[in-house]
Amino acid sequence: MINRQLAPEFRAIDNISLIRPQHLQLDNGVNIFCFNSGDQELVRIEWIFSNLTFDPAKPLLNMAVNSMLTDGTTTLTAAQIADKIDFYGAFLQVDYGYENSQVTLYSLNKHLHHTLPVIADILNNSIFPEKELETFKRNQQQKLQVSLQKNDVVARRAFNRAVYGSTIFGYAAEMGDYQTLQQDDMLAHYKKMYQPANCTIVIAGKIESETLTLLTDTFDKSWPNTSEIGVTIQPDIKAATDLFYFTEKPEALQSAIRIGTPIINRSHADFQPLQVLNTVLGGYFGSRLMANIREDKGYTYGIGSGLASFKQVGSFFIATEVGADVCKLAVAEIEKEINTLKTELVPEEELSLVRNYMLGSLLGSLENVFSHADKFKSIYFAGLDYDYYDRYTTTVKNITSDKLIQLANTYFNFDQFYKVIVGKY
Amino acid sequence: MVKFNRFTLDNGLRVIVHEDNTTPMAVLNILYDVGARDEDPEQTGFAHLFEHLMFGGSVNIPVYDEPLQRVGGENNAFTSNDITNYYITLPSANLETAFWLESDRMLSLAFSEKSLEVQRNVVIEEFKQRYLNQPYGDVWLKLRPLVYKTHPYRWATIGKTIKHIEDAKIEDVKAFFKKHYNPQNAIMVVGGNVTTEQVKELSEKWFGAIPAGEKYHRDLPQEPEQTEARRETVTAKVPLNDVYIAFQMGARTDADYYAVELLSDVLSRGNSSRLYKSLIKEKQIFSEVHAYITGSLDKGMFVLEGKPLDGISIEQGEAALWEELEKIKAEEIPADELTKVQNKTESTMIFSEMSLLDKAMNLASFELLGDADLINHETAKYLAVSAGQVKEQANKLFREDNSSTLIYLAEK
């Protein structure tokens, strides 16, 4: 007879091995990082570019230029680009981020000689056709109208504006901003940004020698630098002075809450210890915020906290949507949980659980070769190296409750947190 | 190609093992053959509420999540109109913890009143967050009862109304568990860095002694064929007008299914699709337009949706959608266009093999459809579809008298 009350024995994770890339640099300055692994005959290739300095007078340029890369070149229309990519069963994505923007291609290896030239064309010859630009503006404005009716979106916009000020990180598009978009500006922006010397290529999957030859042939000599790179440094951030932002929605059934503060980023020695503290508070299903506000009080479907890290700034935030009638109570419980971290040591049993959870979660996040490439990007673009992950596991394994209470007192001051409520309060 | 081994315990639990030693992780996925379609019309939302209660402690283990997190694992679950699916991912060295936790809750729950009370509130907040407090969030609450008049697909998994969730009693919870949560109604897939021997041993050890329970015999009222156009218009606090047109289609297991899915791909998959190119880019009728199928185990829905641009009336939007449908009914799609959606389906299958969890869930779903090995024959079925078959399905489905149209008018 088995004893079902007794948990099976378990082993702690002590060894996490990451695949490191092979690096090569082409004559035009492009750095290529290769992650070769996996059984499926496919690859993911990313072309990553640093954004240009944010211009408050033309705030949408970085985003719009990236979004419209698939909308036409000197030789292909938007429809032809889509046809080619889809015909070969490939997936083409453009993604705008605060720091970098990128083009991503998922392709079967056997079709790369058809799909790669499309990317080369996009990166060399995009023209942002007037008609496509008008369509883009109109559709973006309609989508924005829908987003602005979502309380969590409105809360996130207000929070970012407060914490990051009028920078690329704090910017949230308004309807009228789309009218500032001009084809000439976009072309100029494109020329200064989408150049080999501003590009990092990351390729992951089953990389055979032909694959690599095809890639380097397509993106070396036939992709020259044709212009100086624009400035890619973002100006300093100045957070707002007001701490409280309330947008009333009289008919709201739920209120969106976002609370947090600017904080250190990944390059600071306290960042990894803070990740442990964040996990205890709101970083996993069993976290204190979830246990209290969802599982005990039933105020919400979900609540969590997180740390955002960029090269020049970081932030800590708590986000949730709660019943409109219990919004004040929920905020009070959040405050209570923050203050408990500052006054009471995290019990050893809870801390050991969080340790194991975090290590398991890191191991589990390495699902396939794409995930190994993602781990690399997180450190590479933050200017860090693989020691970062060694330090991470060492920190998670060895951090003490004393260190956590000290961190909470250094970084968490609820009265000084930015607080955003959208709904009823 | 997804390889697997399969065995059944004496109590009827079906077990599938997918060995993949390229990962240090393991997945344990359990699919229970119960969904919102199995609910009493007066107690809707119950299958989903029950899913929440599965995390409220089992007969021998007071809390579910904590011991799993302690060994580095994570879990989640979802409920659909057809199934309820639970999954765990954890370091494979700690696989036994997953067996311990999952077998205990299949054996029996703790049935705590406190857990029921809290999860009722959590689900009510979920109802508000996802269905009521979002623009267009209530679309499924309105569209389902328009398309289905008899079949239990006429309500959404969250339930018809919050009232049904508020009224849930612990006796109902116990009865639901007894009826549906037993080894005969479950399919377990264990994948990752595991061996079949090991999984056999652990399955016998932890699940072998669970009583087989009674087999649930599903006998749902089937939806009769639709014979009249249906329409509903609502005025709501939404920023833009929105048009939905839903058609009844066949079941997931019908031979026609593959042609219908390719039909939806031709219309709406990616930026090279017909609706995107014609109605967003060329004619500039909509800011967004989509077509998709529900893939339900019983009679499904083929749904079209579009948000007309400012200055475009609802009538113009509807007419533009119908024009595309008439076109695909009248003319066979060109060979290249068919090859395109077939190629896309093929590569999607290959990409999905990159994810252990996806593979495990797919194996469980196909076993429910009749045979896990179907996973390895799907691509061939899509590749065998002809342009003629796609046209035939378009003509079968896209008829006025098979349509249900739901219009959102933005309250100005």
Q: What does this entry look like structurally?
A:
The complex is a heterodimer of chains A (425) and B (412). Chain A is of the alpha+beta class. Chain A has two domains: 198 residues, Metalloenzyme, LuxS/M16 peptidase-like (Cytochrome Bc1 Complex, Chain A, domain 1, 2-Layer Sandwich); 180 residues, 2-Layer Sandwich (Cytochrome Bc1 Complex, Chain A, domain 1), CATH 3.30.830. Helices cover 41% and strands 19% of the residues of chain A. Chain A has a six-stranded mixed beta sheet with strand order 1-2-6-3-5-4, sandwiched between helices. In chain A, a hairpin with a 3-residue loop joins strand 4 and strand 5. In chain A, helix 1 packs across helix 6, helix 3 runs parallel beside helix 7 and helix 8 crosses helix 14. The longest helix of chain A has 18 residues. The radius of gyration of chain A is 24 Å and the shape is globular. With 412 residues, chain B is of the alpha+beta class. Chain B is globular. At the A-B interface, helix 2, strand 5, helix 4, helix 9 and strand 10 of A face helix 2, strand 5, helix 3, helix 4 and helix 10 of B.
